[in-house]
Amino acid sequence: MSELLGERYRALYQNYYGDSAVETKRGISALDAMAHMKAVAASTSFDRVVDVGAGEGSLLQILDDTGFARELYALEISPTAAQAIAARKLKSLVEIKPFNGYDIPYPDGFFDLAILCQVLEHVEHERILLRELRRIARHVIVEVPIEHGVRVGRKIAGGARFGHINFYLPETAVNLLHTSGLRVVRSQICYSSLAYEQYCAGRARGLVMAALRRTALKVSPRLAPWMFTYLFAAFCVPDESGAERSTAAATA
Q: Cα–Cα distance between 74 and 178 in angstroms, integer?
């Protein structure tokens, strides 16, 4: 399936990593993602975990530092990212493998958990990748940005340079997971930490944006994602019924 990866995006991700300022941002974002993962996974524990589209390894570093799993694995499309992961010398990392964005070189049910954190918005053929995760893992955690609101045109224009080509609301994200053979066990609309907001927008504006996002989500959980950018995290298992489900699954 290597031909499914468009040349434009293949070229984009070859040297996508290496900017120290961006790496700092990814590190803060990874701390947020870890908190979101714990919230949706609840008390479930995992021995063998793969981070699919692991980037330069910010999330893997946190997983390693906290003893999240006995064995960690990484799949990454970018050679520069794979090199950055290797340089971290993570004690629980078993191996890093290159992949083409779709074919995952592991047998059925090999992993307890597959993580797809802020990757799906970059993927040209989302369901092909999600069905591969369903195949190789007994549990799947997916996190995507919620950007398909009233300012989606601005988000499309701004996200293009980062390779964002898919834009979601909570309902469309749930539908995508269900129609890819995954059953959502638990999901949550999340906001970024104050540290992330202030890193991106400055101390004063970041404080204001954090307050606005939190207040809007508390007051109107359905309307808030149309007005502001959030994150959506979902803890899933393979849907053994094989039946497509509706978009009516509730978010926590």
A: 25
